[in-house]
Amino acid sequence: xxxxxxxxxxxxxxxxxxxxxxxxxxxxxxxxxxxxxxxxxxxxxxxxxxxxxxxxxxxxxxxxxxxxxxxxxxxxxxxxxxxxxxxxxxxxxxxxxxxxxxxxxxxxxxxxxxxxxxxxxxxxxxxxxxxxxx
Length: 134
Fold this sequence. Notes:
The chain is mainly α. It has one domain: Globins (Globin-like, Orthogonal Bundle). The N and C termini lie far apart (57 Å).
């Protein structure tokens, strides 16, 4: 029972995914790590070829804003929808699988629990059809 002068604690099951992932700084760090992995990957690195440092910084911020908003955090994504953003890039199913492999490897490195991993990967599954080109 809670006394009138203390705030009840919110069980972790009632927290947003954003909070359970560690908030803004944690999502930024994880995004930076994942982007470094993707850009260094021999299959995927070419997608950033020719992109200026400014372009990469802007894209990184859009990714962070997208993920923070999607996870229930205090950001508003102002970028284009995923289909428009990725149309014409020629992202294949194989590219998508490499992306997921890096994502699955990164999540435990940041202490992301099994429940949260499942939620993140489930969310990414909803984007697959908008990102992969037939």
